[in-house]
Amino acid sequence: MKKLYVLLSVVLVSVGVAFTYDLFEKSVHNSIARVWYTWLNTDNVRWIVIPACIIIGLIFFGLQHYLDPKSETHESEGLGNMPDPTVVNFAKVLFIGFFSLLAGASLGPEAILVPACLLLGSYVGTKLFPKDTQLIKLLAMVGFVALFAAFFKSFIAGMLGLLLVSKQVKIKLNAMLVIIAAIASAVTVYVLHLIDASPYFAFPANYWHVSLVDVISVIVLLAAGFCTTLGLGFFHGQIERIHAVVAKKSWWLKGLVAASGLSLLYLLGGPLVEFTGNLSIQPMLAKAPTLGLVGLLWLVIIKVGAISWSKAMGYRGGLIFPSIFVASTLVAIVQTFSGNVNFVYGLIAAVIGILAANRKVKILF
User: Fold this and answer.
1) CA-to-CA distance for 361 and 322, rounded, in angstroms?
2) Which of 262, 269, 302 shows the shortest CA–CA distance to 50?
3) Residue 80 pLDDT more than 90?
4) Which backbone phi and psi does 8 adopt, to 5 degrees?
5) Do 232 and 129 belong together in one domain?
6) Are 183 and 226 contained in the same domain?
7) What Rg do the C-alpha atoms of the chain give, in angstroms?
8) What's the number of domains the chain is made of?
9) Which end of the chain has fewer CB within 10 Å, C or N?
């Protein structure tokens, strides 16, 4: 009977994660589109980016200060920081995180949704198995695996999420964990198909044969991705000095400085560098021939600066999905030299380079 309860709890958490992901993702993107692009028309009237960043930024920093003051003392981690598993904390994580992304943070939702989904799994565990700490931890892991499957709307991504979380918490994989992860991934993807949810990131149409140009490009992009993370770490370190000064002041002064700096970066970089970047990949690729080598290099520099600024100055969010935009732009740069470069191979190579450098910089998660 207990095994049946465990199975049902895995399904319950997976369904909950699917709906949490879908509602949060749609809320963020629809709100950004309505506030920034429809109401404020920042695409065409660029100077409005400054008051938009400042006003919504102050709302975010105010909410953080009054609802979750402990989080003001540390940066948002790529895989999230999990408070106690309560409904109130679950709502706080999503609510404050929502305003961080709406305020223009050049960060991804993973550092918001990961703790939320871990909380969801832990909460279900504490209600159904209050005395079994191992099962509570197991259901928290299910929340992570299900979210990974949701991000890419992929069963395989969920199983990769199992590998990632097992390394993070240093547990050995066994047949039971694999089966549970498979159930969680399958249920999550199925629910997302039922509610017609979109993946947070989807690869474009692609061919799969490998040419000599692809091999050379992969080597170049591995190095470029590696250097990008080193640059991210450098910028982050410099910006931390500014944050160390303003962090001692009032929350509103910190928010004013953070939002002002972000707005200036967005004015310098244009609409393509704003927000997480996942919705900017296709527009960037379409504009790449017009932007040219110099324009694309400028995008990379400003985007890396915006990511570093957002993280160091205290916005909530992760660096994985913004890094995918940077990797995509690196591929577009290589494609300016040869249009035959395979985008997906190049993107994977750039992301691997970015992640490899993180072992030294330790900034992504």
Assistant:
1) 17
2) 262
3) no
4) -65, -35
5) no
6) no
7) 20
8) 2
9) N
pLDDT tens profile 143-171 = 989 998 998 888 888 888 777 776 666 66
- Helix (H) or strand (E) run with residue 242 in it: helix 212-246
Assess if residue 356 is contained within a domain: yes
172: number of CA atoms within 13 Å, CB side? 1
Last residue of a domain, one of 194, 220, 237: 194
User: How many residues are given for the chain?
Assistant: 365
In a domain, 201, yes or no: no
Residue 15 and residue 113 in one domain: yes
Residue 218 shares a structural domain with residue 183 = no
Q: Are residues 154 and 237 both part of a single domain? A: no
Q: Which of 113, 91, 109 is nearest to 100 (CA)?
A: 109
Exposed/middle/buried for 217, CB within 10 Å: 0-12, 13-18, 19+?
buried
The verdict on residue 207 lying in a domain is no
Tell whether 235 and 171 lie within a shared domain: no
Confidence of residue 82 (pLDDT cuts 50, 70, 90): low
d(C-alpha 322, C-alpha 364), whole Å: 10
Structure tokens at 267: 């004015």
CB atoms under 10 Å from CB of 163, counted, come to 13
Domain that holds residue 266: 212-361
CA separation, residue 243 to residues 73, 81, 238, 285, 340 (Å): 11, 20, 9, 34, 44
Token pair recorded at residue 345: 């191979």
Final residue in a domain of this structure, among 194, 227, 262: 194
Cβ(260)–Cβ(54) below 8 Å: yes
* CA angle (355, 357, 359) in 5-degree steps: 85
Tokens read off for 218 = 């992969």
The per-residue b/e assignment along 270-305, b for 16 or more CB within 10 angstroms, e otherwise, is bbbbbbbbbbbbeebbebbeebeeebbebbbbbbbb
Task: Judge whether 239 and 257 are in contact, CB under 8 Å.
Answer: no
Is residue 234 in some structural domain? yes
Q: What is the mean pLDDT of residues 82-107?
A: 89
Regarding whether 281 and 185 lie in a shared domain, the answer is no
Instruction: Let me know: does 176 contact 145? Beta carbons within 8 Å.
Output: no
Write out the two tokens for 108: 């991804």
* Per-residue pLDDT tens digits for 262-287: 999 999 999 999 998 888 888 898 88
Judge if 63 and 182 occupy the same domain. yes
CA distance 15 to 271: 35
